[in-house]
Each structure stands twice: as C-alpha cells, then as structure tokens.
Amino acid sequence: MAHEIERADVALVYPFFLSESGRKRQYLYPQLGLGSIAAYLKSQGITVALVDGTFSTRDAVVDRVRRLRPGVVGVYSKITVAEPAIDIARRLKGEARLVVGGPHATSTPKDFLDDFEVVVHGEGEITMAELAARMLNGKPYGDVAGISYRTGDAVTRNPGRPLVADLDSLPAPDRGLFENERYQSRSLKEFGFKSGSIITARGCPYQCEYCSKTVFGDTYRTVSADRVIEEMREVTALGYQEIWFADDVFSLKRSRTIDLCEAMVRSGVKIPWTCLCRVDNVDREMLLLMKAAGCRGVIFGIESLSDDVLGLMNKRFTAEQAIRALEVARSTGLEVSSYFMVGYLGDTRESIRKTVNMSSSLPFHSVQYAIPKPLAGTGLAKRLESELGIAKWRNWQSTLTWKSKFSQRMLRVAITKGDTQFRLRRRLGSRGRVITELYRRVTDRLLDLL
Ligand code: B12
Ligand code: SF4
Fold first, then answer.
1. Which among 65, 92, 175, 346 is least surrounded, fewest beta carbons within 10 Å?
2. What is the whole-number distance in angstroms between the Cα of residue 212 and the centre of ligand 1?
C-alpha cells in the first residue's frame, strides 16, 4: 500500500481511470512527473499527497482529496485525460486553489482556465513549489514565472521559466507515494513481469511532426549515471522485475549511452530493461554494450514504411534505414519492437497497406499500431488546419479527430490486419505461410472497399 497521510498542504491528482479506459491491454506506470513534483515540494517543506486515479474512480478521488483538506490541488493533464481533469476541478471548485499542469494544459492553457485558477507551463517542480507557497500563505502570485492565469476575461501568460539545468539537483520521483503493488500485480497479470519505469533524460532535439514537446522542448538534459543506478536499485527494492526507461530517446547521445551502460555493468545492478531508440542512432557496438548492461529489448518509433509518409512526419530516416537498424539490433540478440501509425495526414491506401503488410512480416518481437492524434501545438495539428481548414477537434478523447479521407472503420481494420498478420506469422511461421498470405490478400481487398 502507498503511504497514506491524513492531511496535506497540496494534493496532486493523476486523473486517469483504468476502469474508464477503452483499451484492454496497456502498460500502466506511476506518473513520474507528479512523483517528481511531490518529491520537490516535500524537499521545500510542503506536505504532499498523491491521489492516483488509475485503480480508483472519479468519486473516490474527489472524496480522498476532500478528506486531505489541501490548500492547493494540482492536477496532471495530457490529451487523453483532459476531460476527467476538468471534471475533477469542477467538483472541487471553491474547496481549494486549483492548479493544472502537464503536456496538454501547457499547449492549450485557455481551455483549462475556466475551471482552474492557474496553468503551470512545462517543467513543473520549481514553479509549483513557488506557486503553492504563495497560495498557502495567501500571497499574490502574479510574478511567478511559467504560469498562465485569468483576471476577468483576460488571460495573463507570464514569461516562461528556464529549464532546470542540472537534473540531479531535483530529488528522484517519490515512488513511495504510488500503489506499487497494484501496478506490479497488474503488469504481472498482463505481461508476465512486474515492469517499473525511470526517466533518465528530458527533451529531444528532433522535430517529428506529430510529437508534442511543449514540456521539455528541444534541449537534451540527462540525469547522471550514479543517480540512474540509484533509481534502478530503488525500483528493484520496491519489487519491480524489469525497468522501462521512459525517455523519449534513450540512445540519443552515444557517449552518454555508453557511459551509462558501462556504469551499470560496473555497479553490478542486475535487472532487465527496455528503452526507446531511434533507428538512426544505434549501432552494433553500442547495442552489444546495452545488452551487457541488462537491456532485454529496444523499441523503435518507425511509424511508417513509406518514405513519403516518413518525409511528411519529418522522421529524418528512410524505411531502408529502419530495416537495417532492425537487422543490426536483432543480430545482437536484443528483442526489437516498433510503433507504427496508420491514417497519417498524407497516408494513402497504398502506403497504409505497405506499412501494415511490411511491418507485420518483419522479424520484430512485437509491433503496435495506432491512429495518429493531432496534438495541440504540433506541426501535424497546424498542417491539418491549413490543409483541411479545421481549427477545433471534435473531441479530445477521440483518436482520429479530423475528417480524414479514411473512415475510422477502415483504420481499425488496418490495425487488426497488422496485428493478426503479425501473430499468424509468429505463431505459425513458415508452416502457416499459405494461411497468412490468404488472410493478407483478403484484407488488402477489404481495405479497398472500406
Ligand atoms: C511514460 C509515458 C506514457 C506512459 C504513461 C505513464 C504515466 N503514467 O505517465 C504510457 C505508455 C501508458 C503512455 C501512454 C500514452 N501517451 Co504518453 N508519454 C509518456 C512519456 C514518454 C513520459 C512521461 C513522463 O513520465 N515524463 C517525465 C515527467 C518528469 O514529465 P511530465 O510527466 O510531463 O511532468 C512534468 C510536467 O508536465 C509538469 N506537470 C505534469 N503534471 C503536472 C501537474 C501540475 C499541477 C503541475 C504544476 C505541473 C505538472 O511537471 C512535471 C515535472 O517537470 C511522455 C513524453 C515525455 N517526454 O514526457 C509521453 C506523453 C506524455 N504521452 C503522450 C501521449 C499522446 C500518449 C498516448 C495518448 C499515446 C497513444 N497514442 O496511445 C497514450 C495515452 C494513454 C493513456 N492511458 O492516457 C504525449 C502527450 C501529449 C499531450 N499533449 O497530451 C506525450 C507528451 C508524448 C509526446 N511527445 O507526444 N505514455
Ligand atoms: S517522436 Fe521521438 S524522436 Fe521524434 S521529436 Fe518526439 S521524442 Fe523526438
């Protein structure tokens, strides 16, 4: 059980509810951004409770917050939890000062300022500590950097706060505030092992068109190797059996990847891990060292196997490079997985078919297909507006929120087709070639009809 306190100055809320989520199988991890803010607030002498909705309900979360009688409530937002974030704020209105942060509120602050008093932009630890201290002491906060707030009809956006230069100066996320046992038993049940997560870097200098980078921006900052190893030990001690390094691109800087992996080997810390890599910054030597340091598998965000679509996405690599990276990584014995999108703005029936058919026939350990989301502030959202003249998405929760030339049904079929072909190939191998081929042809035809 997470350590429960009776009263808190600040309650931090993660408004994600597994019971409301449409997806059957999904990885669940403690929200480390809130864990990090909690640790920082504590270091500043502020008492904090973390109210995680994941295994709970909206009513229970609101009740728990009320019982804590906090002066300030801080709520996380990303696109998929914007609606519950706002709903919780409406229910708590007048009972505490309401603050929201996270990637979605950072990109569309005005959408939150009817229900929240303040939006915290970007990296939240220091801003939230300053803001909460002012609010708890009844002092004005108009000069706090990195916030937006409403005065009457006007919205004031203060100058941004510089990013934290030395990530080691922040305490590690407070993992003791999460219900680790529930995360573990769920992960064990769904995936066969208890997977925990660590963030070892913030920011990414690439400019993929669909990616929302409003929180950490383009600069790449890393946590020291010693600190990563300390967190690996902590996660292991909490009972997790595997670690997912949830960095945007773990292998972004070769020299730091090598230093970190060498430090892991030296430390003797022994826990398998996985991470995200780009296909254009891995090589055999580095991957072998990663494997020696405990890496079980790498995940690429290849997204499309059509060079035209990769160009539109601004991925800055080709399908050929992606396939070569898959071969190199597999040759080291690592499991290689990848994410793909279907129905990107600029995708054609032909490019969707190509991505789905090729990806499901390549020797990946696993593949995941998704329909792109036009996240506010991204190049994709802007291109959508200029090409299709759509300024407002129908629904934050929905997956494909613009009237693309493909129906939702067609895209769902494309995803099922990829998943099924992949599974048929893995389960039946060459024995099932005829069945797989037959399935491919029938569903190719079906895609044309939908
Ligand atoms: C881990 C992760 C996941 C995990 C979730 C784990 C979890 N519980 O958080 C999984 C794999 C489940 C996941 C799924 C999805 N994710 Co995700 N995920 C991430 C990832 C890679 C890291 C999150 C993290 O821990 N960051 C590190 C911490 C330190 O940062 P942070 O969480 O942003 O918090 C900081 C600030 O935002 C701010 N802050 C946050 N909350 C609050 C609250 C207050 C009050 C304040 C003051 C400040 C504040 O301060 C924090 C500390 O500095 C981010 C990318 C990224 N680089 O952050 C994407 C990201 C958050 N995901 C994203 C998306 C789109 C998704 C999916 C919708 C993808 C999909 N197509 O299915 C799904 C949604 C599923 C769902 N259930 O809701 C987007 C969100 C964009 C947006 N504008 O909303 C991101 C930003 C990726 C991207 N670049 O596009 N994801
Ligand atoms: S998708 Fe990955 S590589 Fe591309 S900009 Fe986003 S974080 Fe960077």
1. 346
2. 10
**Cβ-Cβ contacts under 8 Å for 34 (sequence gap 6 or more):** 12, 14, 50, 74, 76
**Which residue has a Cα nearest atom 59 of ligand 1?**
248
% of the chain at pLDDT higher than 90: 84
Instruction: Pull the structure tokens for residue 329.
Output: 């990584």
- Rounded distance, CA 67 to CA 114, Å? 25
- The model's pTM is 0.96
CA of 262 to the centre of ligand 1 (A): 29
User: What residue ranges define each of the domains in the chain, with the CATH number in brackets?
Assistant: 10-157 (3.40.50.280), 193-449 (3.20.20.70)
Q: Is the CB of 309 under 6 A from ligand 1?
A: no
CB 222 within 8 A of CB 200: yes
Our mutation pick for probing the ligand 1 site, out of 16, 37, 78, 107, counting the most ligand atoms within 8 A of Cβ, is 78
Ligand 1 center from residue 78 Cα (angstroms)? 6
For tokens 């601004």, name the residue.
314
Helix, strand or coil, per DSSP, at residue 428: helix
Distance 32 CA to ligand 1 centre (A): 9
Would you list the DSSP string of 23-63? -SS------HHHHHHHHHHHHTT--EEEEE-TTS-HHHHHH
